[in-house]
Amino acid sequence: MLFARARSSSSVDPETFRLHICSLHDARTSVHDDASAVQSITRSQSRATSGSRTDLSTDEEPDSKVKHQQSSRSAKVKKSVRETLGNAASAGQGTVSRSRSAGPETIAAKQGTIRMKNINRFSNFVKSGMEAFVLSSTKMTTKPEERHEIILTDKGPEWRAITQPYTCIVDKPKKESKLKGLKSFIAYSVTSSLSGIQVSRRYKHFDWLHEQMSAKYLLIPIPPLPEKQVAGRYEEDLIEHRKNILQIWVNKVCRHPVLSKSDVWIHFLTCTDEKQWKSGKRKAEKDEYIGGNFLHCVTVPAQSLDSNRVEHQVEGFSRVVRSLDDSVRVMYDRVTETHKRMAGPYRSNWQKMAAAIAGLGHSFELDSSPTNQSVTAALKETAHIFHKIGDEHEESAKRDLDPLLDCLYSYKGLLAGMPDMVNVHKSAMSKLRENERLSMEGKVSSAEAERIRSRVDAVSYAVLAEMEFQHRERGEDFKQMMGAYLEKQAAFYDGIGKQLAALATLFKNA
Amino acid sequence: MLFARARSSSSVDPETFRLHICSLHDARTSVHDDASAVQSITRSQSRATSGSRTDLSTDEEPDSKVKHQQSSRSAKVKKSVRETLGNAASAGQGTVSRSRSAGPETIAAKQGTIRMKNINRFSNFVKSGMEAFVLSSTKMTTKPEERHEIILTDKGPEWRAITQPYTCIVDKPKKESKLKGLKSFIAYSVTSSLSGIQVSRRYKHFDWLHEQMSAKYLLIPIPPLPEKQVAGRYEEDLIEHRKNILQIWVNKVCRHPVLSKSDVWIHFLTCTDEKQWKSGKRKAEKDEYIGGNFLHCVTVPAQSLDSNRVEHQVEGFSRVVRSLDDSVRVMYDRVTETHKRMAGPYRSNWQKMAAAIAGLGHSFELDSSPTNQSVTAALKETAHIFHKIGDEHEESAKRDLDPLLDCLYSYKGLLAGMPDMVNVHKSAMSKLRENERLSMEGKVSSAEAERIRSRVDAVSYAVLAEMEFQHRERGEDFKQMMGAYLEKQAAFYDGIGKQLAALATLFKNA
């Protein structure tokens, strides 16, 4: 039932849709034949946005604060490792690439590259397979299906733009149940503008998708899902709220040049058959091209990069992210506070004023002389309108501030994913420095050194392209959210002004 | 110097102005030749508005609450008696009418009327000379100068309307000093539209005038002066505030058909010569036609009144006054609270929001890429405008709410004077009942009984006329104050709406 709600127009085969999306790009993708052991450990999810200030320190230079954060973070990661490995085992899919640990016995590497291995085997750089990508030369067992390209423009490296943009609508949240009503859940319809296919998805499907994408696109911050709610998750307000954040989520995925072409996303978006859904899920979970290996799916310009310049650019990006992290948090708190005030004391002040004016009107009514009848009527109307304006404050909070808060929530979560990207890049850069030193000392061959340099360049290209995209998106995001918020608030205050002006006229003519 | 600031056009002789005002009315005033001993005790000033709920109980039926209030009130009155008597003595003007007590030895009255005397010699009814007016038949020593008339319209008894309305402007509060700077004070210019004469008056002059008018016009509530301030009375805000309340005060006096023709008011309004001022003051202080005797200046319709109907009407008025007293107090408190909020948390919320948006703008600025420059500029402008809107909340509180508060303050003070009028009338009505009883028992002559009935009718006519005026004024007052307040607030919210709309456009075009 969950998979059967395809529209009449949804006869489009999902595979056709996927091919269509892929054909959007002139897929001059380089296919790496290398394979390496990849640990299927997901990044700490970007959804965890509520905590403390995002940390942009490198893995290599942990200060005391970082140590503290890492200890709690690594606990999470370990749990995630257990779960993921457990998953693979229970699925009976213990493939070499996913179950093997990244120990030295599996990699045929030279003395130099072995020495370059990070001591911290729990760092994101190692776990994600990025170290393996940079240092090893083993072959991949399959061919990558997704292909992406980074091009050079006058603004620097960029992801090749989406040729045919599309959108998705998350709508019609609906309480459904299975096991004869024993289990109930909310299902949302997700409809893509390109295929017209409508699928029905639950939060747990989004959550699974988020996990897959976070694992696969190490250098791309994945927007956050709505926070997992247990209590009151069938309340109308909360359902609407989650729907809005899911909508922002799919908007962001659709706009991203890489994510919008993601295999797992396309599967999520188009699969209406339960059997196909399950097999597609298994396939995505076995994907070799995740983490560091995703870079095998990316064609980068041949031109080598100036590592000092790249480091400088990434450092600048880091500063922007740190600063934004603070300001978005402050803004979020302030809008939350304003929301509370509008629905609370502001509303009640208008309504207490309404009661005071109604009291005057009542006193006026005691005088039965006809002289003051129009003033009495004007007072009563004023009391009525003031009460209404009070209610409008609460409505405005919901209508004008909730969407702003949802956007800020999403942006906050996106920012929380950026330090991972920066830190992985910093680790790659430190491997590059080490490679240069070992190369000078003659401890790695020049072919090997060149291969490592080019692999680190691929990492840098991806990071630079993503930075460029995030800069651009940020402008667009804030343009949209501030524009919409201000427009709605303008209409709100304009409405109050107009209502008060009408009341003033009432008294003038009384 | 205080009296020398007449405009060039102020060559109009004050006496001419007075005659002019008097000629506004077709002075068919009945002149009573009766005279009685009048105690020159002023009513507890209506300015004392801050206290507890106005008490409308009669003098005759004091409940426990009334007793409590009266004890504190009578202390005030006693003080006032001492002061006034002291004044008269020090002025060497111990005239019979003012210095003599209202003891029975001064009045040639029959057994019946003596018996009718109130036991409570401190009641307003007795002190003001109203009892003497109703019961005695002694002659007045002088002829009344002011003449007023009550006419019958289809709405009932009314004060004859002002034929040629005029206005007064209180302006230019200015710090002045005398005794070579030893004493400093604020002087206001008061300019009448009818004569164009501009006089300079201090608060203490208004206070003196208020006292005289309160004593003279027992059945007319006198609007309150601004509260006496000692600390900070030279601060600009306070001076402006007092000026505004003084302006409301003179407006109300100018609009009143009796007060606007008052001798003492005309003297206050026109006298620019210090000698004349002092002699006019002495003359006003010696005025015999104050309190109960004021009714000798009033022509009332010959038609006798239905006492039951009058009592019912006054009771209705009482109810309105009691109810208004509560509602105006609630309204005053609510507007005061709103004032505080607008200048406090509302303002600060806009400005904290401004700071949050400025923070976003700052973070955007760290990214030196030109892509987001227009969004950065829009954020900075938004922060600037939000801060400005915050300040506008404080300005709006001052501009829109202060005048409303001043009007409510004045109205509250006016209401506080109304129970006096009602209570005096109730005492007069109880004298009427007693008179009827004694008359039936043959204890007063029918001529005497008729005289008393007609005197009580005069009191009723004055009260009914004043009630009619206060009903009408109330409508006008609230029409004006609510209209002005709503119009200004409408403009305020409209302004916010317009500014936000302009910002929204800025983001749309970014």
Automatic annotation (TrEMBL), chains A, B:
Location of the protein in the cell: Cytoplasmic vesicle membrane
Composition-biased stretches (Basic residues): 67-79
SMART domains, sorted: PX
Pfam families documented for this protein: BAR_3_WASP_bdg, PX
Region (Disordered): 35-105
Keywords: Cytoplasmic vesicle, Membrane, SH3 domain
Gene Ontology CC terms, in alphabetical order: cytoplasmic vesicle membrane; plasma membrane
Matches recorded under CDD domains: BAR_SNX9_like (cd07626), PX_SNX9_18_like (cd06862)
Residue ranges, compositional bias (Polar residues): 37-55, 90-100
Entry's Gene Ontology BP terms: endocytosis; endosomal transport; plasma membrane tubulation
PANTHER family (alphabetical): SORTING NEXIN
Family: Belongs to the sorting nexin family.
UniProt protein name: PX domain-containing protein
